[in-house]
Amino acid sequence: MAREATTRPASDGRTSMMRRLANVALALALALGTLSGATARADAPAKPAAAMLDDEAIEKDVEALYAAGKYGEALAAAQRLVALREQKYGKEHAKTGSALSDLGGMYLATGDAPKAESLLRRAVEILEASKGADDLLATALGNLGAMLKKKGDSKGAEKLYERAVALEEKGGAPRESALGTVLANLAGLYMATGRLPQAEKVFLRAITIHEKAGPERSLLNDLGSLGALYRGMGRYDKAADQFNRALPLAARVHGTNHPDVGRLHHNIAVFLTGSNQKDLAAEHYRNAEAILTRTLGPRHPDLATVYSDWALLWARSDWKQAAGLYEKALDIEEQWLESALVGGTEEDKTLYATRLETLMDRVVSFEYGGDGRGRPEVMRIALGAVLRNKARVLEASAAHVGALRERMSPEDRTLLDELARVRGAYAAAMTRGPRGMTVAEHNAETDRLRAEADAIEARIAERSAGYRRGRAKVTIEAVAARIPKDAVLMEFVRYQPRNTHFYSAASERLGRPKYMVYVLWPDGRVWHHQMSVDAFEIDRKVDLIRKGLQDPSARPHETGTQLALLHDVLFGQVGAELGPVKHVLISPDAALALVPFGALIDRENKFLITKYSFTYLSTGRDLLRLGAGGGARRSAPLLVANPDYDAPGEAGATALPDAPKGSLPTIARVKFSPLPGTAEEADALRRLLPDPSVRLERVATETALKQASSPRILHVATHGFFLGSDGKAGQGKARGLELEVPPESLPQVASEVDGRKLPVPHPMFLSGIALAGANVRKGQADDGILTAYEASSLDLTGTELVVLSACETGLGERAGSEGVRGLRRALVLAGSETQVMSLWQVDDEATRDLMTTYYQKLFREGKGRAEAMRESQLALLQRPDHSHPYYWASFIVSGAWGPLEGVTPAKNEATSAVRGAVPPGGARGCGCEVAGRNGGTRVPWGGFAALVALAVARRMRGARARGQGEARPRRIGVAPRVSPPAPPQPGSRPPVPRPAAP
């Protein structure tokens, strides 16, 4: 990752440096002329000896063909070498391991990193088990390190490079040239992760070695890389020196027909772009494009990097050229990512998907803040890229399992069952911690189970690749055609603004990340708006608002003010563009996935829910698949409620001893209290659903959920939890788990991607629901705790609706454009169409009423899944004692929004809520006593509306006082304080926002 600070040029002065640059430019032009007429090196093999059945000769051919830049021929020879050595020596021999390393290296050179990984890992495994193969192992480690760097796993790559360096240093003089190569690779990693002085030191060491021991082609690569490093450091004179030395060397070593020469031209072009030598830079870009296309093919990912950088050159003067180059770069990267997502684990896919981040940042920056601003063509390019690439990992992972279930064979069923079993065992081990064993034994067990789960996941991806239908290219027109006539799509994207006028690793990033929203209408019109406040500030305010909404007794006037101000930032400008729209399809990004948009307060002092029905999507691309499950096989609705958390479970099962304090994770120390109110909720819903299967108390188990096969509806009413990685399990004083979780007890971060921290290896361990036996912790796979990780293996293919009537089931670890990794993501992976989840700790009685009304509207009135929730929430809002958003705004609808299949409104059917005495069961988190609930004094939340009215009125007065006429969005961090209103007179009631007619 580039450093934020800009390093100053060398001390010989700006004027002197520019004179040197002019001389260098002339030298480069002369060298370029020499290159254009040069021929390929005579030492390239005239006739490969691959026809011979001598494996040593074939190995030499692989090396020679690779050195000559003939990667396709080298790949074919490497494939023959592996086959021959497996036959000659066996699959576990060191020579076979070396051949696998060569083959993996060839796949990496041709741009197929996913194929390379499995081969290189196998090679390392073989060579580590072989004696006297340190030199071969060092090469394999270096190749695997290069693959991990390409994948984005910088920490993993660095460890492998360091091991390779140690082995090469141990080899002495015979391994000196190889040592220089791995040192150069390590220096390149330091440069990519922003450690520029460290990179310079190691590059210089590599150059010294290659100047002495050769080969010249390695020295050439070192010089080009060091030039790129100096350019990034702002030391342009030194960069020019390296490039001026490298170009003639390239002509002598390779001629013009080698990928390394194309890469050198690319590095020089970037340098010249940054030093404002446009014409010469363009010539080098053209040479880079021609050479790389000729030697690697037109779809190689290296070309995408060339096009992305080239666009920065044209962004100054020709926006059409720049836009066209960005389109080319996106096309190549998206096609490459499509192939990369076919195999591997979800973590692998996440790493590969990060390759697109910088390119996406550049495209959005060019569209909004660069020379492409205000141009509809560029806006459509940016929105198209967002629609195609947001939540790609979620889509690919769900498609793998879906493809297998669609054509279920006995082998497929066995594989999916085995994955569910291993995931359950892994989750149970993680949940209980190292009880009854040492920490080392526990770590060994969890490592084994995770490796087993990852291997099965990779096999599922590989097996499903043959079943999956081709993915048609997503277009704006196709998405717009699926938007209802009275709706719009709001596609939010969080991005890092970048300088689109020149390239400098030290100065390309501009300020803090921002949020952008693209609005798409059914007729294909596109509008956009960038939030005036940076993303960090918005994220902070989202967290503050969520905390305020979790505790209705804590400063409601401040919460109301913040809801109004957040509306101004996120929705203020957009609302004026929506016109008669009634339904908003929200595709949030990052922290915005946790915003209850219906609870935002507009300038008319109305909650947005009174104007719009909201449906949440992972991406606008979801519109192309939602509703495609009609006619799917489905079983009866399943209701799971009021689990007996103290149930002993299976015969003979006993509770394990308490986990050591600080064990991983500390959910093992939670005791769940009964929720008898959820049984009443299930009883009310039983009368509304068609022939449901009901599981209560001791039979409300994990097994009941795991054995379910595509229930039409799944409704679970129980405790929910989210163990935030900030060290707390739950927030506020309502239904969350009031349990301190030491940060060191949480799963550790596995790696970084170009300096960006990834989520914990399995963040879906941090959220889940409690079921029968949860307090016993039996230790088996079905331990009463269903984590989101396990829930992703449920069979919910064709399930129309999943309702988790519990606390915080919509929360999870934030994962950028991949949304939130928690229960909602798990249910999408499991195949469900629509998910109803909660964003904070919910009130038991209000939730009972909300859910009963919701199902009435679904089954008796035939309402859509989103509109039924809106009307149910409005009904609660109209009750003075429930007008605070805490009671009605927690639940959101995500996914398909239409009516349930085959449901028609009943005629003359009473639609009032099913009433009945509900025993106070406490919160659906830990059962904590809360003021205003559980027998406490209920707060008259009609007063909340009056407080909000004053907050909004003051906001409007402030705007008019500034002569603006209409208030404009302002920084939400400076919200005015609002004093509580005077108590109402007897017989009167504070004003309550009334919903508009649905």
From TrEMBL:
Biased composition (Pro residues): 978-998
Transmembrane segments: none
Residue ranges of domain CHAT in the record: 564-895
SUPFAM superfamilies attached to this UniProt entry: TPR-like
InterPro entries reported for this sequence: CHAT_dom (IPR024983), TPR-like_helical_dom_sf (IPR011990), TPR_rpt (IPR019734)
Disordered as annotated region, ranges: 959-998
Keywords: Repeat, TPR repeat
TPR repeats by residue range: 97-130, 138-171, 220-253
Highest taxon listed in the record's lineage: Bacteria
Name of the protein described by the UniProt record: CHAT domain-containing protein
